[in-house]
Amino acid sequence: MIGQTLALKGLEKRYENAVAVDGVSLVIRAGEFLSVLGPSGSGKTTLLTMIAGFENPSSGQIMIGPQDVTFVAPNKRNIGMVFQRYALFPHLTVAANIAFPLRMRHMSESLIRPKVEAALAQVHLGDYGNRYPHQLSGGQQQRVAVARAIIFEPPVLLMDEPLGALDKKLRETLQLEIKGLQQRLGATVVYVTHDQEEAMTMSDRVAVVANGRLAQVGSPLELYRSPVSAFVGDFIGRMNFLEAEYLGLENGNHMVRLRGGNVVSTAPADDDVSAFSLGRAISVAVRPERLSLAPHGRDRGAILTGTVDAAVFAGSFFLFFVRTQTGNNRLLQIQMPVGHAAATLRRGDLIDVIAESNALRLFAKTEA
Ligand SMILES: Nc1ncnc2c1ncn2[C@@H]1O[C@H](COP(=O)(O)OP(=O)(O)OP(=O)(O)O)[C@@H](O)[C@H]1O
Ligand SMILES: [Mg+2]
């Protein structure tokens, strides 16, 4: 199977009293795994149903390879689809469910049988062909849905929260299986999820959506390291936001005064500096793993002083919640390695907060 390029151009879906998808333009490369990540109601399902052809866009264009499919019927688009709920035919056996798209295409029974067996093997359900859906677990049903979606070797595969109903362990197993399958097949995949870890694990690129618009599209690493807005920074991984006042540039570094008094310098500007003006209230974003803490007065160069509110053992690290004057009423989160001396700090201890160089990112206040 060779994946095809999927191009969305100015795609919009307007309902009477809502704009579900608001001008999405995006090219998904052949064989690419792209996740669409966003909060509930942000337009993910609407976007997918337009690509699948179950909804017509209000405006815009959908291309698969060289073909404009904007107004092509769903069954003529050659797209595989897996929904959040298993959506298997209850009265058909597993094998018949998987064979269904081939029978629809009038393939001869002698060709169908080996294809179904191969698909069953690919989703690790070799012995389950004669069962009915209600005789399977949730994870097994979802595997059948995946097998049914890939059996006709579609160049484009759409999945709408296919693992949403499953528990965490099983979800992680199936994430790897789906990803492995996609790589073997070379299919172009658009995968909807609101679970950012899932999007980060599986994807070549992630499209973050908010209010029907693309907030940012990039590799998981790009989104994590260089979010273009406070929204994206907050949505991907953990992020602290500190209130601050912008003081201007010094030797190419942004200087800001954190609420509570400390002046800190942040990474040289690669963004649009003109967005910040002198004395303006801004938001300083910093990841928990790029901060550390130490007993008060021990370290020079601390950016903040605070008190420990809680220390949570998270298995592979400690997460400290620290109360500061600057934290916008949110507790500051600081991630420390297990075994670090600071891990013995307790609730109520007075501490200093230290930031790695280049760890701070500035955002205009209105975005937070
Ligand atoms: N048929 C419809 N008529 C009117 N509004 C609709 C219709 N379908 C969806 N919407 C609205 O469009 C917006 C986007 O809905 P959509 O189902 O695409 O969100 P989503 O990102 O998939 O959310 P979730 O994560 O909850 O599944 C919502 O505000 C929703 O209420
Ligand atoms: Mg949805």
Automatic annotation (TrEMBL):
<feature type="transmembrane region" description="Helical">
    <location>
        <begin position="301"/>
        <end position="322"/>
    </location>
</feature>
<dbReference type="GO" id="GO:0015847">
    <property type="term" value="P:putrescine transport"/>
</dbReference>
<comment type="similarity">
    <text>Belongs to the ABC transporter superfamily. Spermidine/putrescine importer (TC 3.A.1.11.1) family.</text>
</comment>
<keyword id="KW-1133">Transmembrane helix</keyword>
<dbReference type="GO" id="GO:0016887">
    <property type="term" value="F:ATP hydrolysis activity"/>
</dbReference>
<dbReference type="InterPro" id="IPR027417">
    <property type="entry name" value="P-loop_NTPase"/>
</dbReference>
<keyword id="KW-0472">Membrane</keyword>
<dbReference type="InterPro" id="IPR013611">
    <property type="entry name" value="Transp-assoc_OB_typ2"/>
</dbReference>
<dbReference type="InterPro" id="IPR017871">
    <property type="entry name" value="ABC_transporter-like_CS"/>
</dbReference>
<comment type="subunit">
    <text>The complex is composed of two ATP-binding proteins (PotA), two transmembrane proteins (PotB and PotC) and a solute-binding protein (PotD).</text>
</comment>
<dbReference type="GO" id="GO:0015417">
    <property type="term" value="F:ABC-type polyamine transporter activity"/>
</dbReference>
<keyword id="KW-0067">ATP-binding</keyword>
<dbReference type="InterPro" id="IPR005893">
    <property type="entry name" value="PotA-like"/>
</dbReference>
<feature type="domain" description="ABC transporter">
    <location>
        <begin position="6"/>
        <end position="236"/>
    </location>
</feature>
<keyword id="KW-0547">Nucleotide-binding</keyword>
<keyword id="KW-0812">Transmembrane</keyword>
<dbReference type="InterPro" id="IPR050093">
    <property type="entry name" value="ABC_SmlMolc_Importer"/>
</dbReference>
<dbReference type="InterPro" id="IPR003439">
    <property type="entry name" value="ABC_transporter-like_ATP-bd"/>
</dbReference>
<dbReference type="Pfam" id="PF08402">
    <property type="entry name" value="TOBE_2"/>
</dbReference>
<keyword id="KW-1003">Cell membrane</keyword>
<dbReference type="InterPro" id="IPR003593">
    <property type="entry name" value="AAA+_ATPase"/>
</dbReference>
<dbReference type="InterPro" id="IPR008995">
    <property type="entry name" value="Mo/tungstate-bd_C_term_dom"/>
</dbReference>
<keyword id="KW-1278">Translocase</keyword>
<protein>
    <recommendedName>
        <fullName>Spermidine/putrescine import ATP-binding protein PotA</fullName>
        <ecNumber>7.6.2.11</ecNumber>
    </recommendedName>
</protein>
<dbReference type="Pfam" id="PF00005">
    <property type="entry name" value="ABC_tran"/>
</dbReference>
<dbReference type="GO" id="GO:0005524">
    <property type="term" value="F:ATP binding"/>
</dbReference>
<keyword id="KW-0813">Transport</keyword>
<comment type="function">
    <text>Part of the ABC transporter complex PotABCD involved in spermidine/putrescine import. Responsible for energy coupling to the transport system.</text>
</comment>
<dbReference type="GO" id="GO:0043190">
    <property type="term" value="C:ATP-binding cassette (ABC) transporter complex"/>
</dbReference>
